[in-house]
Design goal:
The protein is of the alpha+beta class. The protein is built from eleven helices and 20 strands. Helix 1 runs parallel beside helix 2.
Length: 462
């Protein structure tokens, strides 16, 4: 619409739809604070980044797509993506601004109430007090990737042009069997990826039924096709659109245990479904190891590399000897490799590497940028698990340091020189060599940034 720009700002108002969404979310939690379009739920540390798209006409309705990214507190630093649409009546006599705000508030209220009910049942936030009638939160124990969890879920159901909604939802949901929740149907298939971090896991499921069925399962905010199948049981419907949506939180009930076969299955799925340039399997670092785990090492093999196996942190030693090496962050998890800082775990690109300190913590060596090394994780397991969560989500490259890389400096220099972005397609980028004569490879963030300007992997030489 003419008076909405791409950043969702109404030219006749200083308040954007994203700001309206943030205020709507914050209004449901007494201790919430708002900074721009980001909401923090008091002392819980949970953050919700809010974004509202441009309003769209949909027959007799006005709809606004709402995007929410949840992080912090029990969810850890990496954002998990969630979405919902808001709806408002629409016709010739309707005011675009007023109805757009109404749609944002309608969708934002439904999503926030559902999330807070689930978080409250899980004990992650104080239970909210409300007089409104809400669906009951369903809790159940579950296995995800062989690990025990407690999972809570709640539903957001809607019908468009269907008359009374209650019986329709019940009829459609009954086709799922069991407790009629999509969350339980997905959990029963054992098709969710390995989740090895100690953070709570945000799951969302969606099924839209018309003359055909559209399904969606999001893990960490990234759609996960291996888990779609059971949701097709809702089947097609006639006479309108029924939309079933659930938000679920899975809280680990025991420490993670690495299982080579389950990890290999998850890595294979990442290699199939996360192939865009900004995703784990969409850049040359992944192609270096192909998502493959090499055979576990024996203590004798570790010792032959000049490393005392008895001196290794227990989690790292377990991974090397029971799971393997190869597939992992950056250009792949290395076998035991000593450096002046400790054990090199992986090359990130742009002369940055991750290394394991004697204390067991993982650090990024950013001295090439003139910066001191920075600790990124307390342990090897936490480092690898966070990378795996990011790879499964597929939302953004995994970069654990600050500073401008050599590759990005090259790009910024080209732009400063007035080079037309469109002319970058087909260029070749020859990287310099390090002190050992090895060609410097780009990090994932750099290569993904170039890809936004049409510069593909084939441009990188060496």
């Amino acid at each position: 619409m003419a008076f909405w720009n791409k950043k969702n700002n109404n030219k006749e108002s200083s308040l954007s739809l994203s700001d309206v969404l943030a205020k709507t979310v914050a209004g449901h939690y007494p201790e919430a604070t708002v900074d721009g379009a980001t909401v923090t739920l008091g002392a819980t540390g949970i953050r919700v980044e809010c974004e509202a798209d441009d309003p769209q006409e949909m027959g007799s309705l006005l709809t606004v797509a709402l995007y929410l990214r949840v992080s912090g507190g029990p969810f850890g630093p990496e954002p998990s993506f969630a979405s919902i649409s808001g709806y408002a009546p629409w016709g010739e006599e309707c005011d675009m601004v007023g109805q757009s705000v109404y749609a944002v508030m309608e969708g934002g209220c439904m999503w926030t109430c559902t999330l807070l009910d689930v978080l409250g049942a899980a004990g992650l936030v104080a239970p909210r007090e409300s007089d409104e009638e809400r669906p009951e939160v369903v809790g159940r124990p579950a296995l995800i990737g062989g690990r025990r969890y407690q999972v809570w879920s709640n539903q957001i159901d809607r019908t468009l042009a269907f008359g009374e909604s209650g019986p329709q939802y019940a009829d459609v949901r009954a086709r799922l069997g069991g407790d009629s929740t999509m969350t339980s149907a997905v959990l029963a298939t054992d098709t969710l990826p390995v989740h090895a971090s100690n953070h709570a896991l945000l799951l969302s499921t969606f099924a839209m039924t018309t003359s055909q069925v559209t399904t969606e399962v999001k893990v960490h905010g990234g759609d996960w096709p291996p888990s779609w199948a059971p949701l097709t049981a809702v089947g097609p419907t006639d006479g309108g659109i029924t939309m079933l949506r659930e938000l679920a939180v899975a809280v680990p009930a025991e420490p993670a245990r690495w299982d080579r076969d389950r990890l290999a299955w998850t890595l294979a799925a990442v290699g199939t479904y996360r192939t865009e340039p900004h995703q784990a399997a969409g850049w040359r670092g992944w192609r270096r190891h192909g998502g493959q785990l090499q055979a576990p090492l024996t203590d004798a093999q570790i010792a032959a590399a000049g490393v005392d196996p008895a001196g290794l942190p227990a989690d790292y030693h377990h991974f090397l000897t029971q799971v393997g090496w190869g597939a992992g962050p950056g250009y792949g998890l290395l076998g035991p490799t000593l450096s002046d800082l400790g054990l090199v775990l992986a090359q990130a690109g742009d002369q940055v590497c991750w290394y394991l300190a004697p204390s067991g913590g993982v650090w990024a060596d950013t001295r090439t940028f003139g910066l001191d090394p920075v600790q990124t994780h307390d342990s090897f397991d936490a480092w690898y698990a966070d990378w795996l969560d990011n790879a499964v989500a597929g939302l953004q490259p995994w970069q654990q340091w600050d500073g401008s890389c050599a590759s990005l400096n090259m790009l910024y220099g080209m732009l400063d020189d007035g080079i037309d972005v469109n002319s970058m397609k087909g260029i070749e980028i020859g990287m310099s060599s390090d002190e050992n004569g090895q060609t410097v490879q780009p990090c994932h963030h750099c290569q993904a940034t170039f890809a936004r300007f049409g510069v593909g992997d084939e441009a990188w030489t060496g």
